[in-house]
Predict the 3D structure of the following.
Amino acid sequence: MAQPLDRPDLPARFASFADFRLGAKRRIPHFAFEYLDGGIGRDVGLARNYSSLDRVLLTPRTIDEGTPPETALDLLGERWTHPFGVAPVGMGGLFHPESAPALAKRSAKLGTPFCLSFVASHSLETIVSAMGRAPWHQFYWPRPDDVQNDILARMKALGVTVIMPTLDIPGHQWRERTIRAGVAAKPSPWVTLRDVAPKPLWAWETLKYGKPGLPNIQTYSGGGPAEAEMFLLQNCIRPIGPEEIRRLRDKWDGKIVVKGVMAPEDAEDFVKVGVDGIVVSNHGGRQLDAAPGAPEMLPPIVEAVGGKTAILADGGVRDGMDVLRLLALGADFVMVGRLPYFACAAMGARGAASLDLLAMQVRTVMAQLGVRNVEELRRLKVEIA
């Protein structure tokens, strides 16, 4: 007999990704919303992330009475309660001062990973304190050897076990929406006044917690956000290929998961240098408007890798159905970025309960599909409409 759903602790008006996005647009300044919501160029790649997921059709099966769906799985040497984690999102303090700590804390409680961005508004140490354990850590691998060595030493001392170097930002890009919105380390006073004046609650919370910075970069750049941005551009935004990752492999004895692989040939090359995982990702549609979405590239990458390393995927996930679509296409795990950060932008730290909503949706859709675990999900008939 069906049981009532265990509803997440969210206001009734927030029941979906679209609700979170609309709530964020109403609550935070225009420049902050454009940074979180925007892609690049004409937003064709961003739209493709969503549309390519919508095209994935799963044929449901019927099953006899049995146990509830099992969502737990093993990944990178750990057992996770749900098949998704929180993807790295930069400058989270723009959306709400406590977005990253709240999501990190909720992830730990749910038993699912949280990955901190190198360009986060909170330091790695702050997130460790919030979680009670170390997060995964994503970074744009800097050139100077002394900075590289210090980053690795800090992460090891804090207990980080998984690092996620990002490969898909080989150079600085011109993101039209953020340019028009005035997103910059030193925004003009006029842009700030224009956008902040209609958002008094956001302004008050930002004053209360302090202007968001880039502490993980400022540790090495010195100065404020402007100096951090210059350090990032000069030292971290650069091409990174298999040879660079091989050198990183020699320095780091934990897990390495490279983020931003879209070609099967590249996936094979990274397997050869010893990575523990690959994230099939087009950087949320923010780097190349012509890039395919993860659903289009997952099957050939999974075939090329042949089980030799873990395959993760991100991009365009709006609910539990989308998580299951990516898993059915062959991903071992799914990372979700915009959804929980939109939720925190819309309702503050309470938005971390969006992860509970996602977990509930995964369970309910698995039941609707007639599968009791991820292995059964992968045996379903999958079509691309």
Notes: The first strand starts at residue 56 and ends at 58. The two ends are 34 Å apart (CA to CA). Residues 21 and 342 are 5 Å apart (CA to CA). The chain has a mean pLDDT of 94.
